[in-house]
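Board notes (copied after class):
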Amino acid sequence: MSDIDISKKMAAIAIDALEDRKGEDVHTIDISNISTIADYFIIASGTNINQVQALADNVQDALGRAGHMTKNVEGYDTGKWILLDFGDIIVHVFDKENRLFYDLERIWRDGKLIDKDELNK
């Protein structure tokens, strides 16, 4: 299995985990052609600190069960913007206010917005 196939599978697992905990407005941006930091950014919102933390926990659990450990976690205690770095994918879980403020979709607009179906091909 190629590295990009592994990244796609990881992204699909993360998206499923976010959707399982009712993550809102889940977007996936393919940044593999514009950055070396990761292949995919996955961005989601929660409605409050508890949900943001639950979303992050579920992603870590799901990817951990699949053998992919988190390399770094930032922002968990505040629950306003949690960054989960898995190497090939980076998951950003925001509260609504901080998602609007930081607007990662605009910053990374040179990446390709993709849907979950494309990851399962």
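Comment from the instructor: The CA atoms of residues 12 and 35 lie 20 Å apart. The domain at 3-119 is CATH 3.30.460.10 (Beta Polymerase; domain 2).
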